[in-house]
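Reviewer comment 2.1 asked that we show a complete input and output for one of the modelled complexes. We chose the 3-isopropylmalic acid case, as it is the one discussed in the main text.
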Amino acid sequence: MNLNIAVLAGDGIGPEVTAQSIKVLNAIASQFNHKFVFKNAVVGAIAIDQTGNPLPDETLEICKTTDAILFGAIGDPKYDNDPSAKVRPEQGLLKLRKELGLFANIRPVKAYETLIENSPLKRNIIEKTDISIYRELTGGIYFGKKQTSEDGNTASDLCEYSRFEIERITHLAFKAAQNRRKKLTLVDKANVLESSRLWRKVVTEISQQYEDVALDFLFVDNAAMQMILNPKQFDVILTENMFGDIISDEASVIGGSIGLLASASIGEKYVMFEPIHGSYPQAKGKGIANPLASILSAALLLEHFGLYDEAIVINKAVEDSLKYEITTEDLNKSENKISTDNVGDFITDYIYNRLDSDM
Ligand code: IPM
Ligand code: MN
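Response of the prediction step:
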């Protein structure tokens, strides 16, 4: 298969973790006879530094003319404590999601057997957890009207959803549930928010078309508690943009590190694959960042194009790296320091060696 892939490595640890994914994808291409062509483009703080714009037109154009986008990370502390900053790195990512219509962000969360002891949660609570979070990605409070009063003392962000925005991701989430354990939980705040009541109404209506899937509802505050009390109860979670952002960071505690969580952002026309973690600026250039979220995002990319065997090899390599503790310091407390690059090399070597010895 020929694939053109836009690489938007972004800020902080983005470039170093994304470099590992490129190595891994090159190994897959060579072992399975594919041709992957990578095109780099800037986004985020680095794009602001170079062009004044967190999402330059050229970057958007590259994204629109490739088959998929591999995204790294975004954000820089120099903007975080400056409320008056007019341009922010995050606007690059948000604009990218919006412009490309990437309305569904799918975040798989699972407890790897070999990492159970890395989680601060107890084994009996987390073992065998396997959740797929469907986070709406282009609507809600992230994209509603924003206002600050003239005196600067009042500010507001509007949370707005249309039926259409709810319907399209709801269908995807029900279909995913049909292929999993046939349970879908809508997370909302329907006891308080009008937009959540619309979500409940629309999702309930659509559920009639998926009678084999059991639908239930949880208020987001309760869901946050249930996520650490009894995460095994969840199969597919469907939720709006901001609740999904929060719940998925919380869910990463189950896996033992946020450095493991990958995601796929899907639209009608375009697809992007992104780790859920941020730019982790404190770690930039130190070789300590976990590349697995990026590598697993690359595996989701392959799956999206039907390259299942290829994705399976990557997933197996990741499991082996966890088993043999070829892991960065977020997962590895031993004296023997394993770098970002070492992890990438292990996965890459696995792909070359494993497949050569299979033939
Ligand atoms: C994420 C991130 C982004 C979000 C930020 C960087 C804008 O936290 O992908 O979860 O809030 O969506
Ligand atoms: Mn987030």
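The longest strand covers residues 2-10. We note this here for comparison with the apo prediction described in Section 3.2.
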